[in-house]
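Our platform keeps sequence and structure together, in a single record for each protein. Such a record has a labelled line for the sequence and another for the backbone structure tokens. The tokens are whole numbers drawn from a learned vocabulary of local backbone shapes. The remainder of this section carries one protein's record, kept here as part of the documentation:
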Amino acid sequence: MTSARRRLSLTTTDLHPAYVVWELTLRCDHACTHCGSRAGAARERELSTAEALAVADQLAAMGAREVVLIGGEAYLHEGFLSVIERLASKDVRPAMTTGGRGVTPELARKMQAAGLARVSVSIDGLEATHDAMRSQAGSFGRALAALAALREAGIRTAANTNLNRFNQADLEGLFEVLRGQGITGWQIQLTTPLGRAADRTQMVLQPWDLLDLIPRVAALKTRALRDGIFVFPGNNLGYFGPEEGTLRAQRSGVQEHFQGCQAGRFVLGIESDGAVKGCPSLQTRHYVGGNLLERSLEQIWDDAPELSFTRERTRNDLWGFCRDCAFADTCLGGCTFTAHALLGRPGNNPYCHYRARDFARRGLRERLVPAEAAPGEPFDSGRFDIVIEALDAADPAADVPRERLVALRVAR
């Protein structure tokens, strides 16, 4: 597709990669139990600094507004600071998500000087919970130290948390800790059985857990706004329950709602070897539309069906409960990678508050039962079956110790 055709498309639909999450390297100094990319060692072939800078130029030319650098750990890439500088010089806002282990005061000052605008530190519970999920004693303390170093360097700080059965009880206590750290934002999403989390199926939430969890998140958001902290849900949390307007609100007094998966519409993901997806969390095996070492970003964005599937998605692409839902034409099955991780394909998403409430009104609930294991690759998933049962049925995982939920592994 020519540049002229792309410009015409943007004029009529305004679709472009505005928000980009870029994995600079898969190398990591943590080995988190719930890591979707199974980060640890670098990929066999990763973009060099020169190649990464060329990608930064392409992102700016395509109208990217914010690029979030991730890993692994982005700061373990030799060109990390150079990429920040290049993005900032092109009026693209550089940001970062990190576990924080290696963020020293010296590195924080260098990141600020390079132009890094915002850093979100991943904190997944109070100290004991966080350290267990991150498979590293002292990780919680280092994460808080990173927040302090970044704040002292003049970088805007935020936090992000994956919620699951291991850490959901920590939610309110963690808010108090993070508020004391001076964060300005807190992203909360559900742990999806993706990557290493797919190997710990008892760790992930059951759909009925949302009946308790969603009102708690909404209450925290209302409370946080009074303290100048913006709590925002990930795209796999919520969906048209009574708290939906509060969950999606950008500011106090304004009610908003989920508007469908934005992968390949305004969101883009890049893996460290140059693979391009419509969202950073999408399953690599199914959703890579091309590689930046072989094709330009413009060509991949315009031509790859793996990126364009949400642009044409309608109710007719949905199935199961989602196909006949009253909100189907707007929600369009919720988060794509979450639905795929649960049921093996998108278009039917049991992680939905409205859906859980609908079943509960009938005295029922959905249980996710593991059916296929994940193959053990970055951004992989297995598959679950859905069993419909009485709302008050016994929960087989209710008495599983929390430490077992996070330590459980699938034998290979």
DSSP finds 16 helices and twelve strands in the chain. Confidence is low (pLDDT under 50) at residues 1-12. Residues 210-226 form the longest helix (17 residues). Residues 217 and 247 are 8 Å apart (CA to CA).
